[in-house]
Amino acid sequence: MADGKSSTIQSTAAQRLAKVTDILTFQKTATSILFDPDSTKFPDRKHLPHIPGAPPGALPLDVPKVPAFAREEFQHEIKTLTDGIAYDDLYHLNTQSGTQWDGFRHFAHVATKTFYNNTRAEDIVGPTANDKGGIGHWARHGIAGRGILLDYRGYAQKKGITYDPYDYYPISYEDLYQCGKDQGIDVRPQAQGGDVHVGDLLFIRSGFVEQYQSKTPDDRARLALRPHRIGPDDGQRWTGLAQEEKVLDWLHDSYFAAVAGDAPAFEAWPTHEDYHLHEHLLALWGCPIGEMFDLEKLAEKCRQQNRWIFFVTSSPANVPAGVSTHANAMAIF
What we know:
This protein has ten helices and twelve strands. The chain is α/β, with parallel strands linked by helices. A hairpin with a 3-residue loop joins β1 (75-82) and β2.
């Protein structure tokens, strides 16, 4: 009891100190959940307020032709209305098969089977299904903001670091820090003296699209159809961000509005830890994950201009109960 009382006193004192500091610096610190959207400073992951009961802690539509993780291939049919005069399109697709955003219904916090905003499976499927957490809510406002590209593939080639994007290869925080340094970007959050602003959109090029374009159709299909099973021995193996504490801290403390990469899973797959980055980003923090973004021309343009920051827009599909959406994204310099 004494420890709990002491902790409460320390927390109250810290909040009062934050208020005094805010008055002197004209800032506004977020000190409680839900965060005041007008706040200018936010806590890092290690200092988040505890919530009782909460868990701890554009490619073409037909690319890839054979999607990973046993997903359905995109099918396009042109329907003739009046021969030579009028036509319609018919699409059959899995929104996870190409360049897409993972929505908040895509991946739960595994241990509690809880999706973002306390959404449960019965909200998604079954007789009580509804649109809670659906992509349609994103469509009301869209996604727009300042984008930052970290071209890890370009950095690795420059430094003689070799890896296969079609195999498990974890990209650590230190890797990204050095990549950013090489590009002239301090990847730390602005609150820690870095160049990342609250609400930035993060893009990471790891080389999947480059490798995909260099392979034959048979090789693409063979690798995409590797057997999928949960666990470290999963036949689906992809380069992506490492599951490590420094990466978790960085992703959280940067307060990215969304994160995206060119790889099929964004994080290194399969995870070798007892958690996935998907759980933290989607289910715990409400941060969209973009996968299989074609960053090739963007990286080329950034290198030419030696400028790795740009404006990004994305128009999610207006599907009220949607799980995911194609990105419909554009970078503007």
